[in-house]
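Work through this:
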Amino acid sequence: VQLQACGGGLVTTGGSLTLSCTASSGIFDTNPMGWYRQAPGKQHELVASITVSGFTTYADSVAGRFTISRDNAKNMIHLHMNTLKPEDTAVYYCNTARSWTIEYWGQGTQVTVSS
């Protein structure tokens, strides 16, 4: 199982980042995919998801600021994050959007938004 996220970093409030994730075919090909984040001391939170056909959903906290996209040819998903806020600070992970089936969390990427 491969789930590798990258693209995080340190930005100031109002800044932008784009995260990318490569997933193995076994997960990617037939699953809706999602971006999760985990802030210190909190559980994973699903912030955006996209189906194989491209239908997207967003958590209220990021709607209008984040955009998820998917490249089925490369087994990749991306998260374009705009107007970042300090409360967006977390480690971001990609995984199947079917959260109840998750048994493994791959490599996440740290996003830190300074005020």
